[in-house]
Amino acid sequence: METRVEKIEDIEADKPILDYAAKLIRAGELVVFPTETVYGIGADAYNTRAVENIFKVKRRPMDNPLIVHIASVEGIYELVRNVPKIAKDLIKAYWPGPLTLILPKSDKVPYEVTAGLDTVAIRMPDHRVALELIRKSNTPIAAPSANTSGRPSPTTAAHVIEDLYGGIPLILDGGRCSVGLESTVLDISGDCATILRPGGVTKEMIEVIIGKVHIDDRVLEPLEDNKEARSPGMKYIHYAPKAPVIVVEGELSRIPDMVDKIAKGHILSGEKVAILATRETANSYIGDGYSLFIIGSRDNPAEIAANLFATFRQCDSEGMDLIIAEAIEETHEGLAIMNRILRASAFNVIYAD
User: Which of 11, 47, 145, 197 satisfies CB 3.0 to 4.6 Å to 185 for a cystine?
Assistant: First the structure.
């Protein structure tokens, strides 16, 4: 299949391209589009054949549910059985934006979208191209990240091209994604609001609106193979570059020495080693033989979040054999960052003591 890549710079000027993209969605084809979080590969959420094709193109396990994207708040009412007050409060505060809500699904939502679950994940993206595509398609769009399953999620169209070129008819290039990590997934289908996947709308932000929020134990731990995944990103290795990843945790003052020690051992074996460091520790790395990537400041975890996946992919392009990543504090966006790094490493953690 020939993949067409079109840059969208102005919604009005590029209307013919968006009209074509919507026509493809209505015809049961797949379209890659930008959001504020990552690029998504989308299909008509009501077209089971098209939804199944998402799994095929991504090589995604069928038991990994998808998120349904809508362009207006009213769109949620046909997808769920009811919209409780807690959902309305969160929608008012954070939609459009990087917050996905899980609620009991309506009969209109195919089980192919929800991986057989009786709940559906829904969000309204905060990106003009995504919203315009959904509106023009006149249907909710089911869309996971536009990458090969398990790889770092794409934050530029170039990342999508690396993984999926030739497998989809159209990529809409809307530039670099501003958030850089997938949306927060909040399950409000039961008695307790629970974060299943942390993201740009943080636990602290949610609690301002609805009070106490639970964090699922598996956010920072692996999900057993026989357990049901109620959200994307809970099961299997995710977000992983080609090189194995080691995470170093511990007191900040001790982390650089442990990272340096690990790096030297692998360098002596002839491996190309990358170190993912923060601005606060960068001056501690003065050794030779490794590549140092400064991904942001610990005082600004949103900066780290925006750079993480792109840095993983840069390590791939430079042929790294090993990536050693510093752990950061698991608060605010730091929880989402650690969720992604730990899953990318398959929970390969070394403690600096």
Answer: 197
- In this structure, how many other beta carbons lie within 10 angstroms of the beta carbon of residue 53? 18
Structure tokens given for 142 = 């089911």
Q: Which residues pair with 276 in a beta bridge?
A: 293, 325
**Rounded CA gap, 101 and 317, in Å?**
35
Q: Which residues contact 334 (CB under 8 A, 6 or more apart)?
A: 301, 304, 328
pTM: 0.94
DSSP E strands in the chain: the ranges are 4-7, 31-33, 40-44, 67-69, 99-104, 119-123, 141-142, 170-173, 184-187, 194-197, 214-215, 245-250, 273-277, 290-294, 322-326, 349-352
209-230 tens-digit pLDDT: 999 999 999 898 876 554 565 6
Residue 274: CATH number of its domain: 3.40.50.11030
Q: Which domain holds residue 45?
A: 4-219
Q: Are residues 255 and 201 in the same domain?
A: no
- How many helices (H) and strands (E) are present in the chain, helices listed first? 10, 16
Residue 162 has pLDDT above 90, yes or no: yes
**Per-residue pLDDT tens for 190-205?**
989 999 999 999 999 9
Q: Are residues 108 and 41 in the same domain?
A: yes
